[in-house]
Specification:
single chain; mainly alpha; Regulator of G-protein Signalling 4, domain 2; elongated; cell membrane; cell projection; nucleus; RGS; Regulator of G-protein signaling 8
Length: 198
């Protein structure tokens, strides 16, 4: 790939760099950056401890084997535990799909909104951040759900994201959650908490 890129660059006269070539160079630079990130990607427990809500050592001491084991009972049990959410978020970051969890959490927080004025602005912020086409952290939902949510934005309510949130929850539960339970990160976390007990 690099040889063909170098060869194609040498075919263009100096000073006459077409727009397509500049775009291609930016895309290749972006690809090199992403590949560099992938080479450093890890799902080990050490990555998880770096983003725990508390200081990592204190948090790990508080996390019992029983609690970490219960995360495998159901996806909702995992989501109800702050360290479970932190571990799952760290795992999703290794898969470049943390926007799903961030959207789900934003919807949960949104449902607690009591002020009508804040409700409207928060709804639009969440829609623009996660649901709209080409949103910065666009979640993977089908066209019908996206359009139904768009219509809900005309008169936002506490339930305006329920359909989209349900789809994202289902996607994470069927797809990311089983991989998390098999991940080195989760297995390392379990073995660390068990070692503390012995």
């Amino acid at each position: 790939m690099w040889n063909s890129l170098t060869h194609s660059l040498s075919d263009h006269p100096v000073g006459k760099e077409p727009q397509a070539m500049r775009t291609g160079q930016r895309q290749n630079k972006g690809m090199r950056t992403r590949l560099g990130c992938l080479s450093h990607k890890s799902d080990s427990c050490s990555d998880f401890t770096a983003i725990l809500p508390d200081k990592p050592n204190r948090a790990l001491k508080r996390l019992s084997t029983e609690e970490a084991t219960r995360w495998a009972d159901s996806f909702d049990v995992l989501l109800s535990h702050k360290y479970g959410v932190a571990a799952f978020r760290a795992f999703l970051k290794t898969e470049f799909s943390e926007e799903n969890l961030e959207f789900w959490l934003a919807c949960e927080e949104f449902k607690k909104t009591r002020s009508t004025a804040k409700l409207v602005s928060k709804a639009h912020r969440i829609f623009e951040e996660f649901v709209d086409v080409q949103a910065p952290r666009e979640v993977n939902i089908d066209f019908q759900t996206r359009e139904a949510t768009r219509k809900n934005m005309q008169e936002p309510s506490l339930t305006c994201f329920d359909q989209a949130q349900g789809k994202v929850h289902s996607l994470m539960e069927k797809d990311s959650y089983p991989r998390f339970l098999r991940s080195k990160m989760y297995l390392d976390l379990l073995s660390q908490s068990q070692r503390r007990l012995s």
